[in-house]
Amino acid sequence: MSRRLKAYLISILLIMAVSPPSHGLSLGGLSIGQVEINGIARCSLNGDPNAPPISNGTVILTCGGLTANLAETLTQPNGFFLMFLSFLQTLLFTPSSCYITINLPAGNCSIYSPDGVLSAVLTLASVAVGNNTNVASFVAGPMLDNIF
Ligand SMILES: *[C@@H]1O[C@H](CO)[C@@H](O)[C@H](O)[C@H]1NC(C)=O
Ligand SMILES: *[C@@H]1O[C@H](CO)[C@@H](O)[C@H](O)[C@H]1NC(C)=O
Ligand SMILES: *[C@@H]1O[C@H](CO)[C@@H](O)[C@H](O)[C@H]1NC(C)=O
């Protein structure tokens, strides 16, 4: 191998090593290494903030274009839920096409929804800049019947 070709190949390797990955979530110019999503599930079809919470309901994160659900978790007794996405899940996460659902009846909520499901869209709440990774925190809006 000529010295020149060698230098050329090494420079390509260096460029590959220092370039950030071309995929992945970026918000406000910050690349996001981790995502957390929280919200409160209530036993209401219209997002009534005074409705009793849903305890132990299964909350599912779905993103458009993906055939499988991205993540799921159970609600706490006060209806609160929190999901942490892994780095790989974060790569597949596109906030505008992702939403949260809970199938009714769920946990201790025995009401029926015509669609069988409550859904909520996600809103970016904050980005915490860390030493190793930036964490984006999303809040799921009120969970409503038939928003999609
Ligand atoms: C919560 O739900 C899970 C799955 O639906 C079930 O296996 C578990 O027994 C429930 N826990 C309580 C405390 O109801
Ligand atoms: C579900 O259980 C929680 C915790 O015990 C309670 O606060 C809530 O009111 C219950 N929700 C319903 C719809 O019964
Ligand atoms: C970042 O590093 C500094 C110095 O090592 C440390 O004091 C700080 O707690 C770290 N912050 C986070 C969010 O880990």
Automatic annotation (TrEMBL):
Q: Which keywords has UniProt assigned to this entry?
A: Signal
Q: Does the keyword Signal apply?
A: yes
Is Signal one of the keywords UniProt gives this record?
yes
* Record's signal peptide: 1-24
Q: What is this protein called?
A: Phylloplanin-like
Organism in which the protein naturally occurs = Brassica carinata
